[in-house]
Give the backbone structure.
Amino acid sequence: MSAANFLRYLRATHGKAAKATTRTAAGAVPEAVAPDTLPGLETLCVAMGYDTPGARFLLTGEATDRSEALHAAAVGLRWAGLDGGQILAVLEHNPHAWEVALAHRQEDADKAREYLWKHHASKAAAEGATTCLDVVAMFDIVTNAELPNADPIAQRGAGLQWATVEQFCADESRLEWFVHGVLPEAELCAVFGASGAGKTFFVLHLVAAIAKGGTFYGIEAAQAPVAVVALEGVHGFRDRLRAYSARHGAVPNLHIAHGVLNLREPGSEREIVPHLQAIGPRGLLVVDTMAQATPGADENSGKDMGAVVARIKTIHRRTGWAVLLVAHSGKDARAGLRGWSGIKAALDCEIEVIRTAGYRAATISKLKDGAGEGNEFRFDIETVVLSAGRTGAVLVERGSTQFEPGTPAPAKPQGKNQEAVFAAFELHQHGGAIARAELLRHATEALAGTGKPRDRARESLDGLCRPGGVLVADGDIVRRAPGGFTGGSGGAIAWG
C-alpha cells in the first residue's frame, strides 16, 4: 500500500478521530539536541546499513520519493539505537532532510522542524522498534528501506576507539592465520586467475584443510568452519567435492550454499548473515565467483563495486567471518584480479593461480602486515573415479617455495614475453639449468606468431638474466637464480 492510499484509508475509515490520534501521538516538539553529542553521519549510516535507501538519502539526497526516503532514514536511525529527539537532531541538521522539510512547509523553519518531528522522528520512535516496523510496513517501506538488525550503536562497538600510546601498545593481539603464510584471518581476501587455471581446485583444497584442521603443504591449518557460496559450475563443484572426499576423507565444518545471489542489491547480505551467525562467531566465507555474485555490475565502476565491497564489509562486521572472493584475472594478468582498483586496495591478501605448459601454481601476490608474500604452491589436477561410473578431479600437491619473514620476494617475469620464455625454461630445464641455445629455440617456438619471435625471445631472456633477475646466464648455460622465482605470474540460496 502506498503512502497516499494508506492516508486515504485512514480518512475513509476513521475520519477526524484518526487525524486527532496522529496529532496526539506526536506530542510537543522536543528541545534541540546538540549534533556534536551524536555519532557522526558515517557511523550512523554504517549502523543503519550503509547501502539502505535511508542511509543513501542522508548521505547523497538520492531518492525516487524523497518523503518516503526521509521516513526510511528516520526508521533506520531508530533501529541504529537513537531515540526520537536524537532522530530529530540528525534530520534537522542534515541538508537533504532539511530541504525536504522546508519544501513541505513553505520555507518556514519552525514548521519544518515540527514537520520532521510529527511526521517522521516521533513516528519512528513512538512505541519502539516493533510498532515502528508495523507502521512502516503500511507505507511499503519495509521492502524498500532494507532495515538492519535492531541493535544499538553502543552494542555494536561502532565508532572510534581512543587510547594512549601505552594503552595501544599494551594490546597483545596480532594477525591470526587460518594457514600461516597463506591465508590470514582478515576482513577480505581474494584468489584470482584465468579461466581453467585451477582456482576452484586450489580454493577447495585450502578450505578443506581449514574445515578439517588438517595440513596444507605441510603447514598446520587452524580449524574453523567454512561456508562456500557456490554460484559458478555447481555440478562441477559437487563432483570436485566428492573427489576430494574420496581421496582425503569427509570434510566436516564445511557448509555449502547455492542458488542465486546478487550482492549489488541492498539487503542481499541477509541471505548470508543469519546463517553464518548460526554456525558460529568465527569462520571463513568463500564467494565463488565474484562475477556471478554481482550480475550486471560494471566491474570497473567505483559506484557499482564500491557498494559490493561495502556490503561484504557489512557481512564481516556483523558476523566476524573473513571473506574470500574467487575472481577472474583481467586481460593483463600482471594487473591482478580484474575490475575496480578499489577492490584490490581493500584486499588484505591476494593469491594468483596460474597455469603454464609445465605446471600450475598459486602464488601469494599481496599480503598486508604478514610474512608470506611471494610464497608459491605448485599442484597438478588428477582424475578420481567415483561410483556409478562418474568421475571427478582433485588437486595434488607438487611442492612449495616459502620465504621467511624479512626475506624479499623473488623477482618475477615481467610481461607476457618474459613469462613465455620462463615457462619454456621451466618445461625444458634439467636440474635447474639449460643450454642457452636450446632455451632460445624453445622460447622462439613459444613466441611464434608474435612478430620477430627470435628477437623477442633474446630480449626477454636478457631481461630475465639481469642482476637480481629470475635467471642467471653462466656462459652458454642458463640457470635458475639462487632462491629465485619458481612460478609464473601469469532463486534463493540453499544452505547445507
